[in-house]
Amino acid sequence: FTLYVKVSLYAAFGLSVPFLLWQIWAFVSPGLYPHERKYVTPFIALSSIFFVLGAACAYYLIFPPAAKYLLGLGQDFRLLLKADDYFDFIILLMLGMGLVFQMPAITYVLARIGLVTAGWMLRVWRVAVIVILIVAAVLSPTNDVPNMLLFAAPMFALYAISIVVAWICGRARQTA
Length: 176
What we know:
Elements: H1 2-28, H2 34-73, H3 83-100, H4 103-112, H5 118-123, H6 125-139, H7 145-175
């Protein structure tokens, strides 16, 4: 019974988020200057698109091998997998990757206000690799390297996309 309630609550929340964000935007946007409004709109679009992409990546690309590995650990045991735990694992994985996929949107904001440049991101790429591997190790549900790399691969791609976003924002900032 609790699984049905939990699925219903998550579905209701997921379906109401776009409406909730629209209401927040309708409240906030009249108080913004036109130049501020043109910065916020791309952030909201980027953030929404990348969150959905992150959740989809987690569900379709990362979850199947991670679940296969986790289920393979218990070959010598009688597996008592509850649907509630399975659902929680999927939701946690999707939320985690959805948040990780916010990297380009956050880079957009930081580049627009001048805190981050593409050149700086290229100079600190070694540190970024270490940070990405640490985050992937924390997010990965298992302690094996292949699953950690499965989590890290999209983050490396997102870092490259973030460099491009910072470069585009830097060019727009120079011409403004």
